[in-house]
Amino acid sequence: MTILVENRGGYRVLTLNRPERLNALTVEMAGALMEALDAAEADPKCRALLLTGAGRGFCAGQDLTAIANASPARIGALLEQYNPLIRKICALPIPVVCAVNGIAAGAGANLALACDIVLAGRSAGFVQAFAKIGLVPDCGGTWLLPRLVGQARARALAMLAEPLPAETAAEWGMIWRTVPDEELIAEAEALADRLAAGPTAALGLIKQALDQSTINSLDGQLDFERDLQEEAAENADFAEGLRAFLAKRPPKFAGGR
Ligand code: T3D
Known about the structure:
Number of domains: 2
Bound molecules: ligand T3D
CATH class of the largest domain: Alpha Beta
Strand content: 15-25%
Number of strands: 10
Distance between the termini: 30 Å
Structural class: alpha/beta
Low-confidence stretches: none
Strand order of the largest sheet: 1-2-3-5-7-10
Number of helices: 10
Radius of gyration: 19 Å
Oligomer: single chain
Order of helices and strands: EEHEEHEEHEEHHEHEHHHH
CATH superfamily of the largest domain: 2-enoyl-CoA Hydratase, Chain A, domain 1
Shape: globular
């Protein structure tokens, strides 16, 4: 199976599973990942996701052996399989944690960056490998990178296609933080567990608000926040959060979406 799915109660772990190819992506794998994302979204008990890779790499991007003889039209058409994954991850109403356990290259790097909170092992790295083979960053790379690290760094990363160590990625604000390799999975699981116990609807609305902020004026965003706040306040988790605060006890969020 190219994608492993483990149910951990409140959250699911999705593992890219072609370790002999550093989890390079194929159409079959993209289909399996989409199915897993759809299933997670449809399950009200699934309140967070953790995405990681099997073996020593996170994901080496498109499997280049699969496109060795592909026509330009076919190369473009392949993105019809990958773009929905990026759209889906960004639009999921639950938080997605990514544990980058090794190199994240090409589409693999941008798959990681599309997640909500990205942790990386200290030895991991990110490479916008596209220019090395005469392609353009895809899977949202040209949109995500300048927003995360600014134009100057995005241009150099995309044009030079040099690996960026995870620690620098964290210093630049491209990812949340790095942890020692041997602690990565435990840390990522603890984070997913914590998010899964959170006010799920509010976390989903936070995603929406931050995404919308990239296109809204301040004026528009203030109105959008007001509408989202009303929606959040209608959820039982808000009442529970307030009760818990006033009673000086930890909240027990039901996570209704
Ligand atoms: O189709 C479309 O629409 C276009 C879409 C494009 C999206 C993209 O993602 S384009 C970018 C594709 N990815 C790359 O260009 C990265 C290619 N890989 C590398 O540059 C290096 O492998 C890494 C820097 C990622 C890691 O280097 P290293 O030295 O740690 O490992 P390695 O020895 O190169 O790789 C290990 C094995 O995985 C090796 O196989 P082998 O020799 O042991 O049989 C290698 O060939 C294989 N592998 C690594 N990346 C890919 C791959 N096989 C197929 N496709 C790969 N992308």
